[in-house]
TrEMBL record:
InterPro entries: BLH_phosphatase-like, FAD/NAD-bd_sf, FAD/NAD-binding_dom, Prot-tyrosine_phosphatase-like, Sulphide_quinone_reductase. The keyword Flavoprotein applies. Keywords: FAD, Flavoprotein, Oxidoreductase, Quinone, Transit peptide. Residues 155-272 form the FAD/NAD(P)-binding domain. This is Uncharacterized protein. It holds the Pfam family Pyr_redox_2. The lineage of its organism: Bacteria, Pseudomonadati, Pseudomonadota, Gammaproteobacteria, Cellvibrionales. It comes from Congregibacter litoralis KT71. Its cofactor is FAD.
Amino acid sequence: MSLQLIPVSESFSVSTQVTAADIPTLVEAGVKSLICNRPDGEANDQPTITEIRTAAEGAGLKIAYVPIVSGKFTPADVADFSSALSQMEAPVHAFCRTGTRSITLWSLHQRAQGVADDELLERAKACGYDLTDALGSAPVVESRADETIKAKDYYDVLIVGAGAAGISVASSLMSRTQALSIAIIDPAEVHYYQPGWTMVGGGIFRQADTVKTMASLIPEGVRWIKAAVGNFEPDNNRVLLEDSHPIHYDRLIVAPGIKLDWHGIDGLVETLGRNGVTSNYRYDLAPYTWELVSSLQEGKALFTQPPMPIKCAGAPQKALYLSGDHWRRRGVLNNIDISFFNAGPVLFGVKEYVPALMEYIERYQATLNFGHRLTRIDGESKTAWFATQDDNGDTVEVSSDFDMIHVCPPQTAPDFVRQSPLADDAGWIDVDQNTLQHKRYANIWSLGDAMNAPNAKTAAAARMQAPIVANNLLHDMDRVSGVAHYNGYGSCPLTVERGKIVLAEFGYGGKLLPSFPRWLLNGQRPTRLAWILKEQILPPIYWKAMLKGKEWMVNPERSKADA
């Protein structure tokens, strides 16, 4: 989809996310300067500001980085935007995820210059943006349940996030009742099957097969609010969008996913996608992983894993196994030095699966480096540095050169979650690990990667959690009997070679929770059946069952007692 520039004035325009490929379009349109208002790491297909800056400056454009967390417009933000704008050669083009933050900042800047709110609201409306709430004007309202709210912006159930968890729980609710008004908030145009990216990086899946349009997946009967969340106001039972517009609810489900902190490793964003630096954790980079693997004939290959928690903790080593298998089949494995740098103390957190994995570590002659956290990288010199401890327990830095490096970035809850009343001290949504109900707000539930239950952050976990949250929300409304309990189930199909997988399935405390009898599929050993499950069965189950409210192989425990 080509970039659409929305003219706000003769010298200023806004748009959705700009990519490096869009720079020629901007130059052709006469743009001289850019302002980026979107923080890095908000989405898994989002290019970093460094990538955009490199392309922009190469084309002669000036660019400023004024990142704004959705919905949080402080006087300092407006001052920073105004300062950047004053130093730019016009015409200036600003962008964020949807363009809302950019036009809001421009409007607040214009207000400070004395432009009347009515004029600014009318101009924003002509551009397709409603800034009524952002500029502080009182909306037309009507009363409901002793609150003054817009009737069209009230829902029985509001869901934040349309990833695997959000769409699955929406479908689970719709499969149980058609009597509720339900809305889901997410600005993304597309939805990704992220478990497939490791297979893309291994030359097995096509990149295009891991993505569908969001519009094709939102459940029928659920309203899609195509916007970004700015803030939570749980005491007022409402969510603020990035333009400060309030959406009210009786019950809230929060499933916004996880943030990839590319800036958590110094120098990484400057070299991602080139100089042999790649990551299967980003949609557009997974094909580069395969390009590197398939072309490497000799040299040093590094694979890294940051401190927990991360999504799919097996993914960093899956990249190692599929790469090592390809090099072994090509007959070049003896020419390649493979090293795995893991910030943690063990290869895998559930000990029963380690013996099978170690057989493949030995097969691929990989060196294991535990307690090594990637801290910085220089792509030009092809050098990576790691923090570790010496024999005295002191933190020291060691380095390694490389010909290719697969990086798993550090990960956190999204900014708007970490800064909200819903977060625990570490920034994750604070839930009861059994019922997934918020510990302080009884009408809020959470599932997926952003909540703090101590389970593996995988799509399989979300598949199990969705019907539990749907059940427990409806139990809270006295529409079903029995509280469903989550046992921490998660699954990690460890692709140890092309054609075989170690199917790790476990719950809280590392308890093994196999879905199949041992005689059919022994998850502690590599099997062809597990590979067939991963390659041929799980993708259609994801698209056609999990996201459609068909809860196959999900049978959570229930109790009659209230949660």
